[in-house]
Amino acid sequence: MNAARKTAKTARKPARKAQAVARKITRTARTAIPRGISPEEWKVRCDLAACYQLTDLYGMSDLTGTHISARVPGPEHHFLLNPYGWLFDEITASSLIKVDVKGNVIWGPKDKLNFAGFVIHSAIHMAVPELICVMHSHTVANAAVGMHKSGLQPLSQKAMLIQHFLRYHDYEGAADNLQERARIVANMGTEGRCMILRNHGALTVGRSIGEAFSWMYTLEMACKQQVAGLTGTEGDITELSAELVGHVREQGRAGLSPGGHSERGFEWPALVRKLERDRGTSYKT
Ligand SMILES: [Zn+2]
């Protein structure tokens, strides 16, 4: 072998090694995705599992009592839900069940669908395809605010900023009636992003999983602040003028809308990094 050929052969060795490593990584990534699930669906599953775990991390879970759903990419209108009976901090990408809009389980154990969860979430997924994620919670704060006729009052900055996007839905009992779906959709309307479910809890929606989480977090903070602020302070509350309340409402409409400087969901990558720092990456399995 002449010197030039020997040099070329030596130079190719690191490239071959790098290609072999890349192939191995790709193989590993592929084998981590269960059979029958596309890479696009797997990405949604990972984000949704992260959302379940973050909801638990931020103290907004309620044992097995609520759900977060996400639309699966594609024309079938399938969506993902947690398997009933699992706590939020147990949810991983592969544990999520996939259902159609009629409530049939398409992927995962057939006996793990909670019908009440299906009713609330399918309402939005059937009616508004661009809303990728629907998040439902029962917290002390949002249920407490939902008990009051006046709902979320414009007493804190957070409450005022989300006024434009906040809606209400009256209680009809545990959600086992498919007829309620149309009323949930009508009450959310086209610009609604968060909803107080009176005497019950809260619902948020988003064009991404991160957006739905951000709305839920902000609504939760606003409810907590109201509950804390109104406790034992009768007659000692600073009420703001209607003009100022309207001004902050408009600031929120402009800033939190798509394209606004605090467009909901922009924090999602940072939230996922926090989750991985605190709880590792098992949500992606
Ligand atoms: Zn509920």
Explain what this protein looks like in three dimensions:
The chain is an alpha+beta fold. It has a single domain (41-284), classed as L-fuculose-1-phosphate Aldolase (3-Layer(aba) Sandwich), CATH 3.40.225. 47% of the residues lie in helices and 11% in strands. The chain has an eight-stranded mixed β-sheet with strand order 4-3-2-1-5-8-7-6, sandwiched between helices. A hairpin with a 7-residue loop joins strand 1 and strand 2. The structure holds zinc ion.
Task: Give short descriptive properties of this protein.
9 helices; 8-stranded mixed β-sheet; alpha+beta; 47% helix; binds zinc ion; 285 residues; single chain; globular; L-fuculose-1-phosphate Aldolase; 8 strands
The termini sit apart by 49 Å
**CATH level-3 fold name:** L-fuculose-1-phosphate Aldolase
> What is the molecular shape?
globular
Could you name the CATH homologous superfamily?
Class II aldolase/adducin N-terminal domain
Into which percent range does the helicity of residues fall?
Answer: 40-55%
Number of domains: 1
- The overall pLDDT average reads 89
Q: What strand line-up does the widest sheet have?
A: 4-3-2-1-5-8-7-6
The secondary structure category is: alpha+beta
| String of helices and strands | HHEEEEHEHHEHEEHHH
Q: Note the total helix count.
A: 9
- Largest sheet features: 8 strands, mixed
**Rg value:** 23 Å
Please state roughly what percent of the residues sit in beta strands, choosing from under 5%, 5-15%, 15-25%, 25-35%, 35-45% or over 45%.
Answer: 5-15%
Set out the fold topology.
Layout: H1 3-32, H2 39-57, E1 68-71, E2 79-81, E3 97-99, E4 105-107, H3 115-127, E5 133-137, H4 140-147, H5 157-161, E6 166-169, H6 180-188, E7 194-197, E8 201-206, H7 209-230, H8 242-256, H9 268-279
Parallel strand pairs: 6-7
Antiparallel strand pairs: 1-2, 1-5, 2-3, 3-4, 5-8, 7-8
Helix pairs in contact: 3-6, 4-7
Bound molecules: zinc ion.
